[in-house]
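Morning. Coffee machine broken again, so started the prediction first thing and wrote up yesterday's gels while waiting. Chain of 372 residues, entered below exactly as on the submission form.
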Amino acid sequence: MLPRVKKPALFERFPELQLTIPWVSLTCGPTPVQPLENLGNALGTENVWIKRDDLCGQPYGGNKPRKLEFLLAEALQKKAKTVLTLGALGSHHTLATAVYCNQLGLHPLLGLANRPLGERERPNLLSSQALGATLFFMPKDYYLLWKLPVKWLKQVYTDKKIPYFIPPGGSSLLGCLGYVSAAFELAAQIESGSSIAPDEIYLPAGSLGTIAGLLLGIELAGLTANVVGVKIYPSSKISSSGVFHLVKRCHAYLKKHIGSLPVLRLIESDIVIVDEYLGAGYAHTTQECEQAITLMQSTEDIRLEHVYTGKCLAALIQAVRQNRQDGKQFLFWNTYNSLPYQDSLPSAVVKTAIEASLLPYLSPVVDCTDSQ
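Came back before lunch.
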């Protein structure tokens, strides 16, 4: 278990932010950067590493706790009772929100969009319900246009307060700061010698808050790594222009709090988003993805999943195979929770009751395999 973070790396670099930006400690770290020796041997290289953000929270890791410790701090600051957020069926974001709301005494209200739900996502849905989260479902995306305002107004009436809203993936300007800070954490590890200086960093690109925050943080921290985002959702917004727009807004947000913040030098053409690993769409796996998941499990005993991290690793593996002779250092930024949270919650009795109440959404189990 990693120690609880007492101050984010962003505040270490810019202490004045402690006075103006809310933050509550939810993460553990710094998360280690480790060589993937066995995976590298299988690929014929020594230059593959991993940033273990799968261990960054307690009791739930992945990339969400870094965002939530800024977002939920603002919810507490605003004295909200309820936190409203959105995700897909089986979403890790909505589960992580429920976990940390539960820890902080906030009530999670989770809107879940209809997406393929396989066996690997069922525990997330069940655990969210077991934590006492209120769930509402959207069989069609356009239901969001009326369901979200209705749920919001009902919660205002119930709480006599405005619920705190977190966008999908926690990818607001405040949420992005979690990964601006993560870049400064990596910079400190490189300086101390506990991490290599990567040439390329691979991570999934979905709601874009993680990659946008990391790109901005890498520039502000003076690092030179290229960041490659692997597209996991078929939307035109998941693009270099979409990322750049969020980076610019996040930079402007920080500029309001830090008068000496350097000018943004990043340009849109510097941002790399690859989309050839998407397959049939969000939550649909691919042969390359499953092979990557199996290879990581068999060589390093690290679990990945098929929606985000498996596709991301598949892209990195292909890049390594194409460039293993040029000496590049590749860093896989693991955004998946690997702590056994879903394995221990809920109990068998509770699980049976929950499955009965959620039967319309749990059965039949969707086959997410892309046969292409």
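The chain has a mean pLDDT of 92. Going to sketch it on the whiteboard this afternoon.
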